[in-house]
Design goal:
Blueprint: H1 2-18, H2 22-33, H3 38-45, H4 54-90, H5 107-120, E1 125-126, E2 132-134, H6 135-138, E3 158-164, E4 168-172, H7 179-185, E5 191-200, E6 211-221, H8 226-241, E7 247-254, E8 257-266, E9 282-291, H9 293-298, E10 307-314, H10 315-323, H11 338-341
Helix pairs in contact: 1-2, 1-4, 2-4
Bound molecules: 3,4-dihydroxyphenylalanine.
Length: about 350
Amino acid sequence: MEEELIGIKNTALSFILEAEDLQSLEDTKLQFLGRSGKLTLAIKEITKIPLEKRPAVGILANEVKKTIEEALLQQEKLLSKKKNENILKKIDVTNPGVKPTLGHLHLVTQALEEISTIFESIGFSKEKYPEIDWDYYAFSALNFPKDHPARDDWETFFIKGEEDKKMGKILLSPHTSTGQVREIEKGKLPIRMLNIAKCYRRQSDVSHTPMFHQFEGLVVDKNISITHLKGTLDYFVKSYFGDKRKSRIRPYHFQFTEPSFEVDVTCGVCLGKGCRLCKAGWLEMGGAGMVHPNVLKAGGLDPKIYTGFAFGWGVERVLMMKAGLEIDDLRLLYSNKLEFLSQF
Ligand code: DAH
């Protein structure tokens, strides 16, 4: 029996030393110390030997077990250490890291923020008005006659439903001018508001998207004149497009301003000399004018005491003009194509 135990110890120890990984060490452990392991079975046999011999064999068996357990523990530590070292060897810390992809604000959002900051720096405060509004605020209160073509179903998105006697139909706001009479009605003077918002029109082609953005300025107080309007335009043009760009106003017609103007900005490529992009040196930016007396009246103000100016331009348009971007299809802006958007 003693010899058998010594034999088991020796084989176990050599198996343990030969184990090359943790799994084969675990197998060896089971082979000797498991429920039907060699040592376990041998220990069970002790009951069969004569009584007087049992204590000595018992002590030996315990020693053998302890020796095997200690050897297992030692080897396990050694193999775990080796395993960790191998993992570290596989990581080449000199490799360049994987860069996380960084997102950024949409091109149009960037423009909205920039434009807002420019006007806020000269005392305009940003106001919000309904995106779904009455015909009254979009047209009637702005001095549009009943049969004006902008009211055509093919220009404006009207919402089906009942018509209000005074307010008319409900529509998706086709321009930011919808905020003008809503602002004047608040009765808080002086007014220096900026409305920068989504607008909707039935247009979809290379230079139009059915949803687009405009920014509208409205200033109303006593003694407001065209010079205030021109000064504000110049300030915006220089801040947004750069010091070298100039603005000019040209007579035009809008229902809600009198006099009305179209605002032009010198071309960013030739700075006004004339080139292939602009032809005559100027690029058209949008409308402006002195608030029509009927509009002031609609908002509850006396046009003999108060005057004002207003302007309204397309955000996507000024963005294209600034960047000198020649996007051949404006609809790309809203296509959510990352190949396009990530360039900016
Ligand atoms: N609402 C006009 C449009 O969408 C633009 C406009 C013109 C706004 C003249 C104004 C203005 O405030 O004074 O075409």
